[in-house]
Design a protein that fits this description.
The complex is a heterodimer of chains A (457) and B (91). With 457 residues, chain A is of the alpha/beta class. Helix content of chain A is 21%, strand content 30%. Chain A has two domains: 9-345, ANL, N-terminal domain (Rossmann fold); 364-441, ANL, C-terminal domain (GMP Synthetase, Chain A, domain 3, 2-Layer Sandwich), CATH 3.30.300. Chain A has an eight-stranded mixed sheet. In chain A, strands 3-7-6-4-5-8-9-19 form an eight-stranded mixed sheet. A five-stranded antiparallel sheet of chain A has the order 16-21-20-18-17, with no helix packed on it. The chains are: A alpha/beta (457), B mainly alpha (91).
Chain lengths: 457, 91
């Protein structure tokens, strides 16, 4: 095993300094990094994780974070399971990624009896010895918006922390926060900024309401906070918003001019920036001029550290921050032969700027959660009265998009109660954000020459 | 025409909006609180997705979507503010 050629996450945190005020908090706990220095969250000796592939699956974020901080440099791989990860996919994931250790917090039942398990949680247990890092641990994240089994992508810590060198001036007493779960790319970015920049971190928490989170963030003195445009629209509808951040960041969805203007008005002292990032492509850029879209000069700039181009209408990105590859058999390469990742996001040039206009495959982005039309159509088509259906995104000023379905009924059907029944079927089989919000009965849907449904009306 | 009497048009906008709150809550299996003008939107029992659906249905029914278009419209915080944004947009 070659020695690691990079510092471990813990070394980076400690290198940024461990003064008493540095903390990481959720709705129930506030942990000081200083307390983590001589303690462990794991109930197995750290040495037992040496060179192992570790899957972290906890109900809340804090135990996963503490375990990951300890295990980077020790484990060969760290797999961060998002909170809503379906248990049914666990055995396949464990096989594909060759998981040796399943680390849990006893709140989510494990379905697999073949893998060694360990527990992580609080309170911390004192330790006298922390093994030196021995490897360049791979960080594995799940992509959002795939049908069926979620895909795992491999990142490196230097790749994940690459965007931190973006000139965003941050003082050591910065308090970061995000509406995202940190087991998603967008959330992990913010956590790493807090860890490496010497700041603190306030985590969102599913155990509290949005109003309670905003109140807690305000009380903790949050200075830098990120979320999707949908997160922010919801925050702006709340009266509990007592934060006065210096920096407000949007990512994960298209930021329109309305949300940018509203945020500027709500936080007049904050710099409002919107970033483009994806789990596969990493962070490509952020836009700080308060305008939707991004300057056309970003594309084909030969001097840029992050190379970007537009090909077949979609944005392509090449940088040291992209994922290395997917895990598992029969997976496509993450990047093309020249190293560019196709984001699948279609852009259009107007007056010296590029604007995002949708997804190539028609994926619908509902508040940052991605929906494949085909997946919803398959459920709609289960109803015997449905001849065919087309599911599409309809723009929404609240969640970016909502799911709409156009349905052709077979002739024998009477329309009266069918709509209600179809929606009931959808609610049984799909999470709420995938259920068509609008259902229209139409006479016909156009089918193209290749026999495929024409998706662009 | 006295100022305090709502016109027929704004009265029907209010009714259409309140009906959609009831409908969407029922569809999305949410428990709706009694709808008063000062009830905070986020305490109404509806989440962002529900509000997005209401805005889309009202766009179809009334031909108005005050949140797209006018870029400086603030986001409403109460049911009353939500209704008046529609009434002002239709006026």
């Amino acid at each position: 095993m070659p020695p690691p050629d990079r510092p471990s996450l813990w070394q980076l945190i400690a290198g940024a300094g461990l003064p008493e005020p540095r903390f990481i908090a959720d709705s129930e706990q506030r942990i000081h990094w200083l307390d983590v220095a001589r303690a462990t969250t794991l109930n197995a000796p750290l040495d037992s994780f040496l060179g192992k592939c570790v899957l972290l699956r906890t109900a809340h974020q804090l135990p996963t974070i503490l375990a990951a901080v300890e295990l980077d440099g020790i484990a060969s791989r760290l797999i961060l399971c998002p909170p809503d990860f379906p248990a049914a996919h666990l055995p396949a994931i464990i096989a594909d990624a060759a998981v040796d250790f399943l680390v849990h917090d006893e709140t989510i039942p494990t379905t697999d009896n073949t893998t060694t398990t360990a527990r992580c949680g609080l309170p911390l247990t004192p330790i006298t010895h922390r093994p030196a890092p021995t490897q360049n641990t791979e960080w594995i994240l799940f992509t959002s918006g795939t049908t069926g089994r979620p895909k795992m992508v491999i990142h490196t810590l230097p790749g994940l922390t690459g965007p931190l060198d973006d000139g965003l001036a941050v003082t050591k007493d910065a308090v970061w926060s995000t509406f995202y779960d940190i087991r998603r790319y967008g959330g992990l970015q913010i956590l790493l900024r807090a860890c490496l920049g010497g700041g603190s971190m306030v985590l969102s928490d599913t155990r509290e309401s949005l109003a309670a989170f905003l109140t807690r963030a305000g009380a903790a003195g949050v200075t830098h906070i990120s979320g999707t445009p949908s997160h922010w629209r919801r925050a702006l509808m709340s009266d509990a918003n007592a934060m006065s951040p210096a920096y407000v960041r949007l990512s994960g969805e298209v930021a329109d001019q309305a949300i940018l203007n509203n945020l500027k008005q709500a936080y007049p002292h904050a710099a409002v920036a919107h970033a483009f990032a994806s789990t596969e492509a990493g962070v490509a850029f952020d836009v700080r001029d308060g305008m939707a879209g991004f300057p056309a000069a970003y594309i084909d700039d030969p001097n840029a550290k992050i190379a970007m181009r537009v090909q077949d209408g979609s944005l392509r990105i090449r940088s040291s921050r992209t994922a290395l590859r997917y895990i598992g058999e029969h997976t496509a390469p993450v990047m093309d032969s020249e190293g560019y990742v196709d984001t699948g996001d279609l852009v259009e040039r107007r007056d010296g700027r590029y604007y995002f206009v949708g997804r190539r495959e028609g994926i619908i982005n509902v508040g940052g959660q991605k929906v494949h039309p085909e997946e919803v159509e398959a459920v709609v088509n289960l109803h015997p009265a449905v001849l065919m259906s087309r599911v599409r995104g309809r723009p929404s000023p609240i969640t970016g998009a909502i799911v709409a379905a156009d349905i052709v009924l077979n002739q024998a059907s009477v329309a009266s109660n069918v709509q209600h029944e179809i929606l009931e079927t959808c609610r049984t089989h799909l999470p709420a954000f995938k259920v068509p919000a609008l259902l229209t009965i139409v006479e016909k849907l156009d089918v193209g020459a290749a026999g495929k449904l024409l998706r662009r009306a | 025409m006295p100022n305090d009497a709502p016109s027929a048009a704004t009265g029907s906008i209010r009714a259409a909006i309140l009906e959609q709150f009831e409908q969407v809550a029922k569809q999305q299996r949410k428990t709706l609180k009694p709808l008063t003008d000062d009830l905070p939107l986020l305490d109404s029992g509806l989440d962002s997705l529900c509000i997005a659906v209401i805005v889309a249905v009202l766009d179809d029914q009334l031909g108005v979507d005050p949140f797209s278009g006018d870029m400086d419209a603030p986001f409403p915080k109460t049911i009353g503010q939500f209704i008046s944004i529609y009434e002002n947009a239709a006026a």
